[in-house]
Every structure is written in structure tokens, then in C-alpha cells.
Amino acid sequence: MNVLFLCTGNSCRSLMGEAIFNHLAPEGWHALSAGSKPLGRLNSGAVAILAEKGISTAGYYSKSWNDLPLTPDIVISVCGNAANETCPAYLGPVLRSHWGVEDPAHAEGTAAEIKAAFETAYGIVRYRIEQFLALPLEELQHDRARLKAELDRIGPLLP
Fold this sequence. Notes:
Layout: E1 2-7, H1 13-24, E2 30-35, H2 44-52, E3 74-77, E4 95-98, H3 111-133, H4 137-140, H5 144-154
Parallel strand pairs: 1-2, 1-3, 3-4
Organism: Methylomonas paludis
InterPro entries: Ptyr_pPase, Ptyr_pPase_sf
Protein name: Arsenate reductase ArsC
């Protein structure tokens, strides 16, 4: 099963989703990320927090959803609401869920406050992915309605 983490810029939260998911996923499950208006670069704060957690971003890059090498089975949008973001809506025959996470790339303040925003976003994304991967995936991949309900249940969960 292929899971797409989707956001507008594909530089921070969707990158975190892709990297964390691939770091933790069982065989046969794979994540990728994309954006509707990719920035063309990865956010240095996101790359740094992932590296600090021992999660590689080698080979990852900011890309458009028009450049995906495959059609995903599941699309998880990760746009937040604080900055009045318009979250892209992936069209197509996929299972969709929304896991809003506020964008740490817009954090302001001291270096410690900005790092804390990245830690918070990382923690939320990781926790939700851990909840996803704790589901009975073999069973749910054949029950789309139940899988969607479980993914939608996970969306608001915070660690």
C-alpha cells in the first residue's frame, strides 16, 4: 500500500510524514509526499529534526503531486488551520483523510521557541503514524470503509 502525505509546499510536514512513515512502516507499506505548489526545497528545520531523531531524508525532495511515480492508495493531508492554509484536495480513486498539523516553518520567536514548534509538529506526526501502524493493517487494507474510519479517528489525536 502506498500512502501519500500531502500539503501545499511539500517542504516540512508532508516530508516529516513521508520520512517517519518509511522509517517505521512494515514491509509492503510505503509513503511518499507531494505538494500542490511545492517550494522546490526541503525545510532545514524539518530536515534537522528528522536527522536528530535518526531518520534519514536522503533522496527526499520537494515535488509536485503532478510528478508522482504512482497513484497512491491513501492520501493524508497535513495542512493546519492557524495560517488560514488552503489544503489541497487530491482528486482520484483514493482513500482520503486529514491530519492537520500547524506548520512549524511559520514559527516565530527565539531559536528555542522555533525548535519547540518543530518538536511539536514532529511529535504529532510521529504519534499519528504510530497509531496508524498499530492498526490491524492486513485486515484493514481489504476494508476501505473501516480503514477510512480509523484514519479519520487518528487525525485529531495528539500525543
